């Protein structure tokens, strides 16, 4: 602690990211990374952008990332039948940065914003950073989001709503009909839907982007970190009404006009175009998720229904913290949150079949 800190720094409790240990032979199932490589087209596009001598790196990237916005529009035109204009798309350095801009540009009002009591733990961190008041809305007994709980009276009104769908760390999915009900009940508040894991929700991807033309208060935020296997590239984006996107652009251009580098723009654009690779890897993850769920249940775990690339589970008789420690001793790392209501659950990333088998083998030893 330094005497030179501003008062704000003293009040912050920063977000704690998942551990990134550099140990050989580790089965790493704690940070929801995709276990499969990114599209070969994305790798080739980045190598092509770099060139033989890297001379292009002396030039700034396109501050608007128009090529990437075009790739996003083309992706959703083909996948969801959505017609998007560049004015409806915002891009940033990972979805965390896009979320940060949304908190400052769209959620900082006199009234508090609403969010689930169990959700992505970065949301309350942004509230503290930007001075945004918030109220936690309890999930149901089965960790479900109850839309009716967001439609009541909250003092001076609602400054906005933030939901992850599928929710993190529970993995539960809210159907589009429920999201539309939420939007209709809060027409004067911005509703942010964080779709970091939506590509793992099923064969038909229920993205809320399909609703933006009917609801100018809807902002959908997505990332290429999970389903596109590009967590190391840091590319996120938002889709919404042009008025919402303009607010994000004003914040971005008051903060950092060049959030995405040339390689990120090239690689992300190519990854979005390669839907064959996307479908291959996400289906592999969904298949492994089903197999892993059955194996955990056979070992006595209760598993929350998941639409993400992770599983949220608790054992009937074994303490979650002790299980996590015992797994670590066997070179398997999962995520354990020491938080109310979920301190007996483990969040387990769906890895390759070999990684999942290693996890189950270790758990079989432990619970026996």
Your description of this structure?
It is a single chain. This protein is α/β, with parallel strands linked by helices and 368 residues long. The protein has 2 domains: 18-38 and 276-367, Aspartate Aminotransferase, domain 1 (Alpha-Beta Complex); 40-273, Type I PLP-dependent aspartate aminotransferase-like (Major domain) (Aspartate Aminotransferase, domain 2, 3-Layer(aba) Sandwich), CATH 3.40.640. It has 11 helices and 13 strands. It has helices spanning 7-11, 40-50, 66-80, 94-106, 122-130, 176-185, 242-252, 262-273, 275-298, 320-329, 353-367, and strands at 27-28, 89-92, 113-116, 134-137, 160-164, 191-194, 218-223, 236-240, 301-304, 310-315, 332-333, 335-336, 346-349. The strands form 3 sheets. The protein has a 7-stranded mixed β-sheet, with helices on both faces. The protein has a 4-stranded antiparallel β-sheet with strand order 9-10-13-12, covered by helices on one side. The protein has a two-stranded parallel ribbon with strand order 1-11. A hairpin with a 5-residue loop joins strand 9 and strand 10. Helix 3 (66-80) packs parallel to helix 8 and helix 4 (94-106) packs across helix 5 (122-130). The protein is globular, with a radius of gyration of 21 Å. It starts with 6 loop residues before the first helix and ends with a helix.
